Amino acid sequence: MNENSKEKQDKKPEIVKAVDSLRPVIEDIAVSLYKNPETGLNEYFASEKLTGILKENGFSVEAGVADLPTAFVARVGANRPNIAFMAEYDALPGIGHGCGHNLMAAVAVAAGIAMSRVCPPEECGASWTVLGTPAEETVGGKVIMVEKGVFKDVDAAFIAHPGQTNSVGGGVYWASHPLEITFHGRTSHAGGNPEAGINALDACVHAYIAIRNLRNHLKDSVRIAGIITHGGHAQNIVPDVAQMRFTLRSTDWRYLENVVIPKVKQAAEGAAQMVGCTVDFRHHEMLFRETLEYPVLKRICAQNFAYVGAEVPPPDPSYAGGGVTDVGSVTWVVPAIQIGFSATSARGHSVEFAESTVTPRGIDAAVMAAKVLALSAYDIVAEPHLLEEAKAHLRERLST
Ligand SMILES: [Zn+2]
User: Fold this and answer.
1) For residue 96, how far is its CA from the centre of ligand 1 (angstroms)?
2) Using CA of residue 11, residue 386, residue 301, residue 39, what is the dihedral sign?
């Protein structure tokens, strides 16, 4: 592919047609995953199904990447740039695909296959990858895949999440650090010889209050939420162990790591010292980063929504967000964007949402989203300065 914009214009209708022809594949994936919902890291059916389809379509598949049995990399071509479409396919316990990840898988696979057909690597000089990223709802498979270097070989990544509206991002995903704090003291008879005990619960309660009070001296864009998960065995025993779990959130992962976490630890250590306990810390879940927005990728995706005749309403400025996604961590290592596509009017994480993913509206929406992703990937390959602009944005944000 070259900078010849005439050639570029010529390929877009072909891409749209290629995705349309993949509608049966999209429907097959959406429905079969809907019927076989699997929670995070148990997505064996989904992972086999998707890699099977990709192999049939000429992709070479590496399964079990990043030591995650249900993660995979499926790729055509060895050239750079290598553009990835990310698939999610984990379901929610009890309600199946109430977050619509079955549609996300269908979109990524269809976009990848469409691009491999319309712009084969030997012709266009780029490779196309479909990344199988498991367990978004639980451990955050992408965070692990980032840590294990899966994205070293990727130049840009796209993903589409179903919801109530079309969107091209909106800064609503926060960084989040789960922190488990455990205090260790010494048991004794609470009535007979309390003086021999060291009360871990006392330290825990002091620390809980101190940590909550930190809110007064942190930036507004921080949320501190915690519970006491263990406070002793019985009231006639001085508690030797007490434990809390916090989720610390911020719109800036560096502020979280460099300021918030150290202050929280300091407060807990102070409380432990006051009582004579020891304290230890553990991240009991993965650390999520906020989503870095790429103006250039937002612009391209918005243009391609328009190209396929879909409207993108302006984001609601009053919505501050606070949720997390493992896509955030990806955006800090390669240019990446998550678009939203209007597939349902049901609320997220509901049975109704799951049901709507297999309706004609849900499938139509997935076809539309696959077109937007494929066309956008095409744009950054056809016009290399766009990808360069996105990479420059990442470098700049990392250096500030
Ligand atoms: Zn989701």
Assistant:
1) 12
2) positive
Q: Give the model confidence (pLDDT) of 282-321 as tens digits.
A: 998 888 999 999 999 999 999 999 999 999 998 877 777 7
What are the structure tokens assigned to 183, written together?
Answer: 């205090």
Tokens of 258: 């460099």
Where residue 284 falls (left for φ over 0; alpha for ψ -120 to 50; beta otherwise) is alpha
Note whether 43 and 383 are within 8 A (CB). no
Query: Which residue ranges form the domains of the chain, and what is each CATH number?
Result: 5-172+290-399 (3.40.630.10), 175-282 (3.30.70.360)
Q: What's the gap in Å between 200 CA and the centre of ligand 1?
A: 38
- Are 161 and 348 contacting, i.e. CB atoms less than 8 angstroms apart? no
Whether the Cβ atoms of residue 86 and residue 159 lie closer than 8 Å to each other:
yes
SS3 77: coil
In whole angstroms, give the CA distance from residue 240 to residue 183: 8
Query: From ligand 1's centre to the CA of 267, what distance in Å?
Result: 34
Instruction: Tell me if the pTM is above 0.85.
Output: yes
Q: What is the distance in A from the centroid of ligand 1 to the CA of 350? A: 12
Residue type, 201: L
